[in-house]
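Entry type: protein chain
Record version: 2
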Amino acid sequence: MTNENAPDDVQLAANFDNIVGIARKIRVLRWIVGLKIGLTAANMVE
């Protein structure tokens, strides 16, 4: 996906967008997993 003719700034911006997108996905996945663990723990207590 690297373009030899692209300026460094453009390449950095693209990489940053990818990193931010991945970080968002990880955050959402962690939130969902945490929610499931929390619900499971709550059910065990009852």
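Comment: The chain has a mean pLDDT of 87.
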